[in-house]
């Protein structure tokens, strides 16, 4: 118990683990910190993808509304419903397509290379993200996109629209620079105060000298 290997509360004895030195604890904390940072970075990337999806759908809705206001309505056979995928291959490729009885599964066999694009990729190609995915938005586009998202996500939109990297490493570097600037400011203020104290002491001593 004195070595913090076990703890005892009334009749309950708990195993705390073998004692470790400070170096081992520091290494373990560094690993845990890096793991948390990686998780945050992954969540940030997922959030950015969700923002892009949200913007693309909002833009598509506005585009369709504008078309309807102009009297342009697609026929039921030409309308494509979300979600969808587009399969692209050579016009010389041979395609064997098999469909399940309930038409919920499709199997394709190609004798040449092919590409698969999801709905978000197609909406990006249609320019419905205003360059947000490339970090090439104008200020006008950024303001327009910000109006499509909640207030809490506007800062992410600004960073994405201006192509500003918001990776964890960059954020930590900015915080470190801020801390350094703050320390330098505090040191500068301390030196100024010391100089003022010395000047006051000098003035008090000189006042006693007869001229």
TrEMBL record:
One GO process term, biological-process aspect: regulation of cell cycle
Lineage top rank: taxon: Eukaryota
Bias type Acidic residues, positions: 172-211
Domain Transcription factor DP C-terminal intervals: 24-167
Gene Ontology CC annotations of this record: nucleus; transcription regulator complex
Alphabetic keyword roster: DNA-binding, Transcription, Transcription regulation
A molecular function GO annotation: DNA-binding transcription factor activity, RNA polymerase II-specific
Signal peptide location: none
Spans annotated as Disordered: 164-211
Annotated InterPro entries: E2F-DP_heterodim, TF_DP_C_sf, Transc_factor_DP_C, Transcrpt_fac_DP, WH-like_DNA-bd_sf
Family in the record: Belongs to the E2F/DP family.
Protein name (Swiss-Prot/TrEMBL): DP transcription factor
Organism the protein comes from: Pararge aegeria
């Amino acid at each position: 118990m004195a070595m913090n290997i076990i703890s005892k509360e009334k009749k309950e004895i708990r195993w705390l683990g073998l004692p470790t030195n400070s170096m081992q604890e520091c290494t373990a904390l560094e690993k845990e910190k890096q793991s948390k940072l990686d998780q945050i970075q992954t969540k940030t990337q997922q959030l950015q993808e969700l923002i892009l999806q949200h913007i693309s759908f909002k833009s598509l809705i506005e585009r369709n509304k504008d078309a309807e206001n102009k009297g342009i309505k697609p026929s039921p056979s030409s309308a494509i419903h979300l979600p969808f995928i587009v399969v692209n291959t050579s016009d010389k490729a041979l395609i064997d397509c098999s469909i399940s009885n309930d038409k919920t599964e499709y199997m394709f066999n190609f004798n040449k290379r092919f590409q698969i694009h999801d709905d978000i990729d197609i909406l990006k190609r249609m320019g419905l993200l205003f360059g947000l995915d490339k970090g090439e938005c104008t200020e006008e586009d950024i303001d327009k996109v910000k109006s499509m998202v909640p207030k809490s996500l506007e800062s992410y939109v600004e960073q994405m629209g201006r192509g500003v990297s918001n990776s964890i490493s960059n954020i930590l570097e900015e915080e470190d620079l801020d801390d350094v600037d703050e320390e330098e400011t505090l040191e500068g203020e301390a030196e100024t105060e010391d100089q003022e104290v010395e000047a006051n002491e000098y003035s008090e001593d000189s006042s006693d000298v007869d001229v």
